[in-house]
Amino acid sequence: MTDASLTSAAATDPTCLQPEDFDELDTILDDLRSRYDETPQWEFCEGFMAAVICSRRPIAADEYLPVLLATPAPGEEADPEGGSFASDAQRERFVALWNQRWAEVQTALDAEVDSLEDDACYHPEVMDIRGAVAEMTPEERADFKDEALPAFAQVWALGFMFAVESWPDEWLAPRDKDAAKWLDGALQAIVAMTEDDAGTPEISPLNEDGAPSTSVARINAFGEAIWAVYDLRELWQTLGPKVETLRKEATPGRNDPCSCGSGKKYKKCCGAN
Questions:
Q1: What whole-number distance in Å separates Cα of residue 196 and Cα of residue 20?
Q2: Which residues, 6 or more positions from 246, have their beta carbon under 8 angstroms from its beta carbon?
Q3: Above 70 in pLDDT, residue 30?
Q4: Measured on CA atoms in the order 159, 78, 24, 148, is the torsion positive or negative?
Q5: Which 3 state secondary structure label does DSSP give 257?
């Protein structure tokens, strides 16, 4: 996993995950994948995490981690066809690293930033697969000849939208028209990143000297997607969790049969109190 997306501040801040920490996360996910082949890559997890942080309702780890990794929730029996950690220690290590990254992302999304170049800005941990393959030897590239390689940040966006689709009630459009328009615009910016980059490769997004792998339009769209994440965080924090509407059951008329099933009239039964 590349460390190019780490800011200079993160590189020196001991509270931030370092490249070796992301490598450890990759190793744990690879091990999970040996037992459950649909275990996602970290980039997918990164997008999923951002969406859960932005969610209108706070979602607990015991609820969202089983959705992401197909692992059993605490106290539940493991599904033989699902994911599973090799040991309690491995799970605890994954959760510790996850929580550390969660704190980083949440702090970044709650910071007031004016530029994507700001050290305090949210910088998703994404990979440039196409660029990495382009820099391989011809022999190495031959192994990827028939593979559909993901576009820059495409897996991140897919992870984000997976979380949105997993809790649709938390992403319903609010009644306020301006807020609903705000929500739709932000989500569309992220959905756009789930699509392929059909433009001409012009630049390397993570390495100034790297092989061109990404269109300028894609880089601009990625910037819009990051601002969209900020918008979603602000929107749901402003509106707060949904307030459930309480519906009071209709009270029977005084001469109607009592709803308790006694066979008496309401006025001589529950209505007499």
A1: 30
A2: none
A3: yes
A4: negative
A5: strand
